[in-house]
Amino acid sequence: MTTTSAGTPAPAQKIRKSRRKSTWLTRGDRFWLIVLGGVPAVVVVGLIWIPALVTVGLSMTNWDGFAPLSDSKFVGLENYRQVTTNYPPFWPALQHNLIWLFVTFAIPTVLGMFIAVLLDRELRFTRVYQSAFFLPVVLSLALVGFMWQLIYSRDQGLLNAMLGLHGDRAIDWYGDSKVNLWAVLVAASWRHTGYIMLLYLAGLKAVDPSLREAAAMDGASQTRTFFSVVFPVMRPINIIVLVVTVIESLRAFDLVYVINKGRNGLEVIGALVFSNIVGEGQRIPFGSALATIMLLISLVFIVIYMVAIMREEKR
């Protein structure tokens, strides 16, 4: 130990001790740190991860939902084989989810970004426009389904009246399996556009104005400035939009269930999971296998998101 001639600690040691004491947490700080970090962790583990792991486990059993779970047998991947080879609604449902994903990317994402760019220019009444476009987001998909029912109704609907389709020529937009998926996608896109607009508007507000000014001084047009300068800078927002869009597409359920319980052309995986676990023909292991497949598809995009976030933090 380095001491002075008088036997007291050297100044450098005093400074280190002082800094060490200043970084120590008090008992109260540790308590609140545990509470603020521990409670959310317990909630996430208890309400998300444990049910997810239980679902995966149940998907490999033959539990009938009535007998004790201990009487069930391990059947391996048999339920997954039944889902993919002996369950006709599965592949149409997967196809509908992919169509839902493609349309959500092609229409509301592009439209939401376009509206955000316009509103970022501080147009007159821009706050009113923001509220109007964001209003559908606060509505539940079930309510959206009822609202669009007034438009799509075969006999009293607004759309058939505008198109002049009456009598035998009237189209049952929700009932015809050839068109009902596209009709539902229009309603879902109407709601999703406001959400995407809000995300991109927040991203545009965070872009450094000097980047636009430098591009303008170089003679770049507004379109070229956006796609060459602004859009790459908003990479974190683009990743969030990607993940949000994928999750919204995979968990599509409310809207189709309100319309016809996910049947007759509106099969989606979420509705199949619900009908097998909660419906009349309850098959919990079978529905758990469907839910696990949906979870695995979601994990692919979640992993992509996490990798991108970690790369951003390393920069």
Automatic annotation (TrEMBL):
Top-level taxon: Bacteria
UniProt entry tagged with the keyword Cytoplasm: no
Region of interest: Disordered: 1-21
Membrane topology: Multi-pass membrane protein
Subcellular locations according to the entry: Cell membrane
Keyword field: Cell membrane, Membrane, Transmembrane, Transmembrane helix, Transport
Residue intervals of the ABC transmembrane type-1 domain: 94-305
Annotated TM spans: 31-54, 98-119, 131-152, 181-204, 225-247, 284-308
InterPro entries found in the cross-reference section: ABC_transporter_permease, MetI-like, MetI-like_sf
Family: Belongs to the binding-protein-dependent transport system permease family.
The protein's name: Carbohydrate ABC transporter permease
